[in-house]
Amino acid sequence: MKLYTRILRFLFRDLYAKVESVRQETVSLQGCLHESQTRLAEWQESSAMQEAILQKQNQKLQEEIDLLSSQLIDSDQGHHERIERSEKRLDCLEHYRSETENRMRSDDRTTLELAHRIESLEQTARNQENAFHAQNFQLFNKKSYSQAGEDAIILYACAMLGIPFAKCSYLDLGANKPIEMSNTYLFYQQGARGVLVEANPALIPDLERDRSGDVILNKAVTAHSGDEILFQILNLDGLSKVGDISEILAKNPNAQLEQKVSVRTIAVNDVIREYFHGTAPVIINLDIEGLELEILKSIDFAVYRPLFFIIEMIPYSENLVLNQKDQEVVDYMHSKNYQEYAFTGINSIFIDHLQYQKIIAEKSGKEQSHAGESCK
């Protein structure tokens, strides 16, 4: 019994020690648990505070973002509005500039028109008051450059018809030299300008030098443009030509063929269309050594009617030529309603009878009108 009691005591003592150890561990664990709970509570409280702070910070940041977004939107709207206002302003300025330019052009045209009208009125007044004396002064104080005074005859006719000398445009076919024996140089001196056609290339430099205001064409006048033909250059002045030269050589033993050159051709109609803009010149001088009638027949008289023609009418001769005027040319010109105004022994001067009648009728009408006004 005692042994059994001892055994039980030993066992209970050991159990008690284990229970005590477990109790102590439990107490220790409860202390750790309490401490952990306390720390957890503190952490939760700290987290809640931090969350609240973060929420406030986030709310503040969101407010700032919203404010910045609002400002950005306002800025964009303001920028777009400024752009739109600027574009509208630019459109207005462009419209104003365009209107200003149109007004300036209109004002310029009006100013020019008024200037032209004033100039025309002044010129008319000067012509009415001084035309007779001025024309007479120029008529009787001049030098003729033509072979037989042809330029002086036409100058007189222009004065009588009231045509300003400076407006006597001309087409010189077979121009030869620029000044000597020229039927158009006197008008060049008076301010008129025209076209000189000469096939001999050796004569072109002098024409370009002394007639720099004129158009100089190194071409041969024929019925068709654009062909290549041989132009025969003789040693004697004014005798070079296209075609047969045997008669010239037979009649003049001093004449010699110097060279043949290839020259491009041009028709009278094409010259007028290209260089006179489709309006016939006042004067056509025609001197191309025997081809005059062929050239005359190539002209479209229904469209182009110069007021004056100067046409060489006699064959080449070293002697004075009498009663050998080319009647075929005269008849042809009459058929085109041109009247022979003068014959110098070398050249005939023809006047377009239609234009002549119109000019005379207009002058008569003006004279009657001035007479009627002077009686009022």
What topology does this entry show?
Blueprint: H1 2-140, H2 150-161, E1 170-173, H3 185-189, E2 194-197, H4 204-210, E3 215-217, E4 220-221, E5 228-234, E6 241-242, H5 246-251, E7 257-266, H6 268-275, E8 283-286, H7 292-298, E9 308-312, H8 327-335, E10 338-343, E11 347-352, H9 353-375
Parallel strand pairs: 1-2, 1-8, 2-3, 4-7, 8-9
Antiparallel strand pairs: 5-6, 5-7, 9-11, 10-11
Helix pairs in contact: 1-2, 7-8
The Rg value, from CA coordinates, equals 56 Å
CATH T-level fold name of the largest domain = Rossmann fold
Helical fraction equals 55-70%
Major sheet attributes = 7 strands, mixed
Distance between the termini: 185 Å
Beta-strand proportion: 5-15%
CATH 2nd-level architecture of the largest domain: 3-Layer(aba) Sandwich
Number of strands: 11
The secondary-structure element order is HHEHEHEEEEHEHEHEHEEH
Order of the strands making up the biggest sheet:
3-2-1-8-9-11-10
Summarize model confidence as the mean pLDDT.
79
The CATH class of the largest domain is: Alpha Beta
